[in-house]
Amino acid sequence: RRARHRWDLGNRRSHCPRFGTIGCARNPRRSSRRSRGSPGYIVAKHGVLGLTRQAAVQSVGDRIRVNAVSPGPTRTEISDALVAQGSEVVRAALGSLNPTGKFVTVEQVAQAVVYLCSDAASMINGQDIVLDGGQLASL
User: Fold this and answer.
1) What is the pLDDT of residues 16-36, one digit of tens each?
2) Strand 128-131 vs strand 65-71: parallel, antiparallel, or unpaired?
3) Sign of the Cα pseudo-torsion (40, 128, 66, 106, in order)
4) By the 8 A CB rule, do 1 and 108 touch?
5) Which of 4, 12, 13, 41 is catalytic?
């Protein structure tokens, strides 16, 4: 009998139909631009990706999938002061980071995780799912 997990996504509830999904989160901006962040931080973030891939390979026989989710600049309480100044200020601040000039929302990150837990993502294993509005593509 398979266990079903629930995540509360505001007004929606989603299910993860199996125990066999593990996720990791990281910030792709810091690890992709060597001029930002300390070397230790960069090494740690790349370590998360290496661990994700190795755990995916080692766990596949147990029907466990392991993936990472890497959000770009994410709308949180910390960014509320910037958001309160208006969309043009946000676009100016984020324009150098990602082409959309928008924050990733916590809900978008949660939706990506729920997707990775779904049967539709059953062939995704050992991957880094980047949610950054095209930030890495523009580097």
Assistant:
1) 444 455 555 555 544 444 445
2) parallel
3) positive
4) no
5) 41
| Active-site annotation holds for 115 | no
Q: What is the 3-state secondary structure (H, E, C) of 62-100?
A: HCCEEEEEEECCECCHHHHHHHCCCHHHHHHHHCCCCCC
Q: Where are the beta strands (DSSP E) in 10-81?
A: 12-16, 21-25, 65-71
For the chain, the residue count is 139
Amino acid at 58: Q
Angle ∠(108,114,120) on CA atoms, nearest 5 = 115
Read off the tokens for 3: 């266990």
User: Has this prediction a pTM greater than 0.70?
Assistant: no
